Every structure is written in structure tokens, then in C-alpha cells.
């Protein structure tokens, strides 16, 4: 049975730590900072068995070099990006075998936030870095709207019950935007109430599920009439293609202030 713990880093990053019950080994996803990981490992008498990286931004891989000074382990990362600390490059369709935690993950290419961004899916859980956020999606720093829309559509096709682990606690701000786009969607309001209760107790709002994202995340709902008309009202243009609706919603969010 795979257990997943959060380690907080920087202002709002989560480093995910994966552990098989009763095993001294664990795997971390996107360690932007080594210190909180090393502290966790020491406090819990755990050893690192592998590192998974989703994309090249420093808040996701900045801690790898220091971790490698303590543990000589495989570092999996996107073949499409040059990250000097990655020693196992992986791309779409590759399998990542992690016997130390009894897990296998499949790699998905999900460009958009960055050009080579990847996700890891297996054991019913998804690690999607800065691509699919809870009720939101990552900014388009390197990719096109077409790429990001396609990447999100790919993730939305995973099983409904898939647990979604993203890398930032952006949920409340994303839900505020989702509510602005789709004020009549009551699920957004109830999700917001729940998320506020969690944050008041300093509990991560992550994971969610693919099902909940499809029901409340505007970036996965570009085919819905309500999202289409909201995007048309905002842009003052008629929009027929889902990708154009996606692009408008993304630009709207880029400039959205609470
Ligand atoms: Zn990023
Ligand atoms: Fe990030």
C-alpha cells in the first residue's frame, strides 16, 4: 500500500514523498529544496530510493544536487529538458520502475507550462507538477495554448477516481477564479467551503480527483456551454473551438485579481 506525504517548501510548493508501508525507503517528487526533505528523512529514519522530476523550474528540481550528496539514487526527469542532475531521462510511454516502494509509473508528455513537462501516473495516482492544478492550470511559459489544452485533455481522460497531486497550494485562488467564470456551478462553491476548512487547519487541499477536476476546473470544461459563453463575454468574440475558449480563459486568469 503506497502512502503519500506532503513536505512543504518555499511559499506554496509541495514536495510529495512516497513510501511503501513498513519500508525504510521512499521516493520524492519535485524536491525544489533539499533541506525539508533531509529533515523528514532523518526524523522518520527513511532513506531515499529515487527522485522524480516533472519539469526544469528551480522550485521543482533545485534540491536534487544536495540530495545526491547524501543518497546516490536514480533521478528521473523529462527527456525534453536539460536538467543536469537528471540521470534517467524519460518520455511519453516510458515506465518508471520503483521496486523500493513497489510502484510503477507511466510517463506522459504534457507540454504547455514548459516545453518538456512530464507527468507520472500509476497506482491510481497522478503527479502532474505545474500542469493541472486543483481547479486551475499552470501558466503558459514555454508552450502554446494548443499544447496545454491537449495536455490537460490527456490528463482528463485518466480514470475518474485518479488522485491528482500537483505541486502548488493554489486551490483557493483558483476556485475564486473558477467561481467568477462559472457562478452557477454549485460544486465550485461547496469545493471552496471544503478547501477553506482545510486551509484554516493548514492541511493541503491536495489531492483531488480527476472526477472533481472535470466538475469544477474551468480549464477542463472548455466544451461546456457555460464556459464558452463566459469566455465569449470576456473576449467580446464568438469562440467555436475548445482550444480558443481555453486560451481566453487562461489569459483571463493571468490578469485576474481577487
Ligand atoms: Zn513550474
Ligand atoms: Fe512550480
Q: Could you please describe the fold and organization of this structure?
A:
Helices cover 34% and strands 24% of the residues. The chain has 258 residues and is of the alpha/beta class. The protein has a single domain, classed as Metallo-beta-lactamase, Chain A, CATH 3.60.15.10. Strand 9 and strand 10 (125-127) form a beta hairpin. Helix 4 (145-156) packs across helix 9, helix 5 (171-181) runs antiparallel to helix 6 (186-200) and helix 8 (225-235) packs across helix 9. 46% of the residues are buried. It binds zinc ion and fe (iii) ion. Fe (iii) ion is lined by residues 57, 59-60, 130, 167-168. Zinc ion is lined by residues 55, 57, 113, 130.
Helix segment tally: 9
Q: Which homologous superfamily in CATH is the superfamily?
A: Ribonuclease Z/Hydroxyacylglutathione hydrolase-like
- By DSSP, the count of extended strands is 14
Beta-strand proportion: 15-25%
Task: Characterize the quaternary organization of these chains.
Answer: single chain
Unreliable stretches (pLDDT < 50, length at least 5) are none
Give the averaged pLDDT, no decimals.
98
